[in-house]
Design goal:
By secondary structure, the chain is an alpha/beta fold. 31% of the residues lie in helices and 37% in strands. A hairpin with a 2-residue loop joins strand 8 (161-173) and strand 9 (176-187).
Length: 235
């Protein structure tokens, strides 16, 4: 299980703005009007969970196995009775979700690329079981090629300190990269803290991921950005 112990502290400050824009756009286009339930797979700090709970009256199943990320998710919901009443948090990976026909929409971003072939197959089958027939899966597939070798994260001032970071991408082999995240806190131009966390990233041609979806019981019906597939649960 991936811990995200370092990334959890910095995620909302340095990553959340882009994630929020993407998630809002995807939900605006694809969410519709769920009648059964919705699932946020790989919920992280709860950004999509919060949006779903604000937009839907049905149960929002928020799936996040990493305790460090889940702690922030729960803090995001704390004291908000209008959301607490219909969010259920699942402290387990998607492959062991254990739900059956509990939702008509699932969203899964920033997750599939961190799973190997066996883990993806198990997760997709579990999500398929959790959706009703005809249910919609909004899923970000693994990238086909490595990203930039290095890119900067946004920087923000917090009480005079500057929080910033970068991510580097190193190819390990033909189907695998390593993403290394560096997070920094600077004061008066001097770095006072620097933290690192690395993750394996799996590369996969889009046609192969479409086959994996089909094997799990989905049929792809459309595409979106970034690397997002819209699929319906069949069977």
């Amino acid at each position: 299980m991936r811990s995200y112990d370092v990334t959890a502290e910095f995620y909302d400050l340095l990553h959340a703005a882009d994630y929020l824009r993407t998630t809002r756009r995807l939900l605006d286009r694809w969410l519709g009007d769920p009648q059964v339930g919705v699932i946020d797979v790989g919920a992280g700090t709860g950004i999509a969970t919060e949006l779903l709970a604000m937009r839907c009256d049905v149960t929002v199943h928020s799936v996040e196995p990493a305790a460090s990320m889940r702690a922030i998710l729960l803090s995001r919901l704390a004291g908000r009775t209008e959301l607490l009443s219909h969010v259920r948090v699942h402290a387990r990976p998607a492959a062991r979700l254990g739900l059956a026909s509990a939702a008509d929409v699932a969203i899964c971003l920033n997750t599939m690329a961190t799973l190997d072939e066996t883990e993806r197959a198990d997760a997709l089958r579990s999500i398929a079981r959790a959706l009703v027939r005809g249910g919609i899966l909004i899923v970000q597939r693994p990238p086909e090629a490595p990203g930039p070798e290095r890119s900067d994260l946004p920087s923000w001032q917090l009480g005079g300190d500057i929080y910033s970071g970068d991510v580097t991408c190193t190819r390990v082999d033909d189907g695998l990269v390593e993403w290394r995240f560096a997070y920094r806190v600077s004061r008066d131009g001097i770095i006072v803290r620097e933290e690192f966390e690395s993750f394996a990233g799996h590369l996969l041609p889009a046609v192969r991921f479409d086959r994996e979806l089909a094997k799990a019981g989905f049929t792809p019906v459309d595409n979106d950005e970034p690397d997002v597939v819209i699929a319906h649960r069949i069977g």
